[in-house]
Amino acid sequence: MKAVFLDRDGTIGGTGGGMHPFEFELYDFAPGAIRSLNEMGINVFLFTNQTRVGRGYFTEEELRKGFEMMKHELKSHSAVIDDIFYCPHHPEDGCECQKPKIGLLLRAKEKYDLRLEDCYVVGDTGSSDLAAAHLAGTKKVLVKTGWGESSLTKYRESWTGIEPDFIAEDLKDAVAWIGEDLLDVSGEEGKGDLFARR
Fold this sequence. Notes:
Elements: E1 3-6, H1 30-39, E2 43-49, H2 51-54, H3 60-76, E3 83-87, H4 103-112, E4 120-123, H5 126-136, E5 139-143, H6 148-152, E6 166-168, H7 171-196
Parallel strand pairs: 1-2, 1-4, 2-3, 4-5, 5-6
Helix pairs in contact: 1-7
């Protein structure tokens, strides 16, 4: 089973920084990009740090309600996120799930019997999203939306030694590359299987 892990803030919507879940808005292109992943027959997972729960800005219940609002909007565009993995802890809690640690990815691996090396992480922060991807052995895609541009320039030293497999303008561009990469990896036989699932 293959999967694509999507960061939330700055990747599928929002501003890059944490925000109240009721204020979160998807980028215009995000539902179509997620629908394209659905049509490829691979699982789409959200994985996101939500430290503002631990810091008291909003409750975990509000966060979950915000996720449901987001999923409802995606559903109206025939797009589906198959599961959500999130870290609600304070940065000083010392948990194992807060990116760049890989607890969220390991949880998904166990739940869905994944080979992480066959999976993709798409995010806008090199020192968090791509660092977690690097540690877990997934393919790494950086989007320039959200904090992506500054990750590539101003903050590049915070993730020295980690090279993205692809740098995308946005999620739509990232999904197009993933589709091409899946076909390259699968070969002609895999290509037939891929399109048979559409």
